[in-house]
Design a protein that fits this description.
The structure holds two protein chains of two kinds. By secondary structure, chain A is an alpha/beta fold. Chain A has a single domain (5-260), classed as Alpha/Beta hydrolase fold, catalytic domain (Rossmann fold, 3-Layer(aba) Sandwich), CATH 3.40.50.1820. Chain A has nine helices and eight strands. Chain A has helices at residues 41-47, 73-86, 98-110, 144-148, 152-159, 169-185, 218-226, 243-246, 248-260, and strands at 5-11, 14-21, 26-30, 51-55, 93-97, 118-121, 204-209, 231-236. An eight-stranded mixed β-sheet of chain A has the order 1-2-4-3-5-6-7-8, sandwiched between helices. The longest helix of chain A has 17 residues, at 169-185. Chain B is α/β, with parallel strands linked by helices. Chain B has a single domain, classed as Alpha-Beta Barrel (TIM Barrel), CATH 3.20.20.30. In chain B, 43% of the residues lie in helices and 12% in strands. In chain B, strands 1-2-3-4-7-8-9-11 form an eight-stranded parallel beta barrel, surrounded by eight helices. Chain B has a two-stranded antiparallel sheet with strand order 5-6. In chain B, strand 8 (214-217), helix 8 and strand 9 form a beta-alpha-beta unit. In chain B, helix 3 packs parallel to helix 4 and helix 7 packs across helix 8. Chain B is globular. The model of chain B has no long low-confidence stretch (mean pLDDT 94). Classes of the chains: A alpha/beta, B alpha/beta. The interface between A and B is medium-sized, with 23 and 23 residues.
Chain lengths: 262, 426
């Protein structure tokens, strides 16, 4: 695993990190709950055949305190659109996970020409009161790793400070990521995205961890039913909510296969 | 100094196995534990107790706001305050307070507080808490990432609603109102005194100091644990070059007074253990909604833990996190200073020390706590008023309280019709 190239753009006055690695057609990735405090194997897998560009979302690791000026859902969507444009991703294929998948879907709905193909891993945004998502913000700390990943150690390792990290600022950054997700999705995770799914014309891959303990599997059907473009749904064996962390090779293979198909 | 009588209004009949059989006293406490007919009696007892405290000479009676909470039956303290305004004459009424961000529009707080101030003839103390995570983010669904900004904006709106003479448009970040013009207006000029309960956050100390508001630490852990927090406030006051006027501070303290220390221990153990054992049983999953604790406070908390500083157990910690570490057995409850017990002399002695060491001019006293009966509450209250209160009147006597209500003179005020002494006496 080698480190990616790091660029910094400015969004609403906040420095925002862009990671870039690999060659070939561009593929954007918007990370899930908790964001990416470090580079992960999944992105290396994608970078084998694509130029992977992973911008940070406001408030998530690499996104500074950009969430603090985003008050409405429109504010968020405009910020994400601006980040994608500045990252050179306009018109490119776009993948996202969890929180990031929801925002990727919104961009595809509002600005159809700005997204090629779309790959969504267990997106937030829906709420079914008969089958609600798990509340990720009302958990004892030790329960979170097992809710995010099938293998809790993977989440724990992602969130542990690397050698030389600032022992005060690192944990604050991880809380900030949870806050940023809350700022968009509190309290139910319901952004009423179902009203906009019909505007998504992009061919869309829906991936769901077989053991997702946050987003019910039935939500994959709701997304597939709502999206106007052709959809394919795949269940990832042995994976939890952040399937790309549990099964980087398998998830990358599904996404790359989908993007390469006609 | 000022001695204020505070009621949390706890449900007094939580079962003995409450702690083991239920996940939490707050947010998702089960409705089957609530008997409205028993609550009818509790509310009436509690209001009798508040009225009795006024009658025996406490400077103020205090109520507060909680939601979905088994130890705080006042989702609307304003309802209780309105009733107290009619049943008391000279005692200050301290609503501690209204969680500003929960009112939509927040103008509602300006209106209801103005009503209480009018009804009571200018006796209101207006408390503006942010509110706990359980109340605000979980029970009321407020976004934790916006809570503090909404609180500050609501504060600005309420203040303008009280003081501006003409109808105005409020163009806030979260609230937009084209025509703000409250009727009634508060009796007190320019508005009732503003007191702010805080939990030890750096920003709240700074804000109270800057705005010239009373900073209150409503801790359930007594004066020993409260010291670090009050010191933090006074350090901020010093830094800003402000007077160390003790009346700019308030502090909550549990009290059990009896003929002797042993008698107090025996009399108040059950109620204290009920409170610390059952009432503070809050599920840890309600402790830390992300964004509730400011990054400045998180930073101070982490740094204080690294230093193993004296305040490491409170700084940067949320209400729920503090509850989890609490002592629940009477010996430890007393040793830790959560509840001050003793003979009148002993209690007066300890309170003098609290008031002096913490430099606090307003002591908010819990003389009813947990499942304490009305009879025992009355005994505690009476003994305190008769034998402790006189011994403390001289404390901080050289300072002026600039944060106390300025009521209308009694000759200007309405005559409140007599009410049945049976209610107050039982």
């Amino acid at each position: 695993m080698t480190e990616p190239e790091t660029l910094t753009i400015e969004v609403n006055g906040f420095p925002t990190r862009i990671w870039r690695k690999g060659s070939g057609p561009k593929l954007g990735f918007l990370a899930g709950f908790g964001g990416l405090p470090r580079w992960v194997p999944f992105l290396d897998e994608l970078a084998k055949s694509r130029t992977v560009i992973a911008p940070s979302l406001p408030g998530f690791p690499g996104g500074d305190r950009g969430h603090t000026v985003l008050d409405s859902h429109l504010d968020w969507l405009l910020a994400v659109r601006e980040i994608l444009d500045q990252a050179g991703l306009s018109g490119a294929d776009l993948a996202g996970s969890s929180v990031g998948a929801s925002l990727a879907a919104e961009v595809a709905a509002l600005w159809p020409a700005s997204v090629g193909k779309l790959a969504l891993i267990a997106p937030f945004g829906l709420f079914d009161e008969n089958n609600p998502p798990t509340d990720p913000w009302a958990q004892r700390g030790d329960a979170v790793p097992g809710l995010m990943c099938a293998d809790p150690d993977i989440w724990t390792a992602l969130k542990s400070p690397p050698e030389g990290a600032n022992s005060v600022e690192w944990p604050i950054e991880q809380v900030r990521a949870n806050e940023a997700a809350a700022r968009i999705f509190w309290p139910l995770g319901n952004t009423r995205i179902e009203k906009r799914l019909r505007l998504i014309k992009a061919p869309t891959l829906l991936l769901w961890g077989e053991q997702d303990k946050i987003m019910p599997r039935t939500y994959a059907e709701a997304f597939a039913k709502g999206i106007a473009g052709a959809t394919t749904t795949r269940i990832v064996a042995g994976a939890g909510h952040l399937a790309e962390l549990d099964k980087p090779v398998e998830v990358a293979r599904e996404i790359l296969g989908f993007l390469e198909a006609d | 100094m000022k001695l204020m009588w505070f009621h949390l209004m706890p449900y007094t009949e939580l079962p003995e196995d409450f702690r083991d059989a239920n996940p939490s006293v707050w947010v998702d406490i089960h409705s089957s534990l609530f008997d409205p007919k028993r609550a009818h009696l509790m509310y009436n007892d509690f209001m009798d107790e508040l009225e009795y405290a006024a009658e025996v000479g406490f400077d103020a009676i205090c109520v507060n706001e909680h939601h979905s909470n088994g130890y705080g039956l006042m989702p609307s303290p304003n309802l209780i305050a309105a009733s107290l305004a009619r049943r008391t004459t000279d005692t200050a009424i301290c609503v501690m307070g209204n969680s500003l961000a929960l009112y939509n529009p927040p103008t509602r707080v300006a209106e209801e507080f103005a009503m209480i101030d009018c009804i009571s003839g200018g006796r209101l103390i207006a408390g503006f808490p942010v509110g706990t995570p359980m109340d605000t983010c979980y029970a009321y669904g407020t976004n934790p990432s916006q809570l503090r900004q909404r609180y500050h904006e609501a504060h600005d709106l309420v203040l303008r609603a009280w003081t501006e003479k003409d109808t105005f448009a409020f163009n806030g970040r979260f609230n937009q109102q084209r025509y703000v013009n409250i009727w009634p207006r508060p009796v007190q000029h320019p508005h009732p005194p503003i007191w702010v309960p805080g939990g030890g956050s750096v920003e709240t100390w700074h804000w109270c100091a800057e705005m010239n508001y009373v900073y209150c630490y409503l801790s359930y852990y007594g004066y020993k644990a409260g010291r670090a927090t009050m010191d933090g406030f006074w350090a901020e006051m010093d830094r800003l070059g402000k007077d160390r006027n003790p009346y700019q501070a308030g502090f909550l303290q549990f009290i059990g007074v009896a003929e002797s220390r042993q008698q107090a221990f025996d009399l108040y153990s059950e109620a204290a253990e009920y409170f610390y054992g059952r009432c503070l049983h809050v599920d840890a999953r309600w402790s830390t909604p992300p964004g509730y604790t400011s990054e400045g406070s998180q930073r101070a908390g982490i740094e204080s833990q690294i230093r193993k500083a004296a305040d490491a157990d409170v700084r940067g910690k949320s209400t729920g996190e503090r509850f989890a570490a609490v002592a629940r057995e009477m010996n430890a409850i007393v040793d830790n200073g959560y509840v001050i017990i003793g003979s009148p002399d002993e209690v007066a002695e300890q309170l003098r020390e609290v008031a002096t060491q913490l430099n606090v001019g307003h002591l908010m006293l819990l003389l009813q706590f947990g499942n304490m009966s009305k009879e025992l509450t009355r005994y505690n209250t009476k003994l305190f008023a008769e034998q402790v209160m006189p011994k403390l009147k001289d404390v901080h006597a050289s300072w002026t309280d600039h944060w106390w209500p300025q009521p209308m003179t009694s000759s200007q005020r309405a005559e409140v019709p007599a009410f049945s002494p049976r209610l107050a006496a039982e």
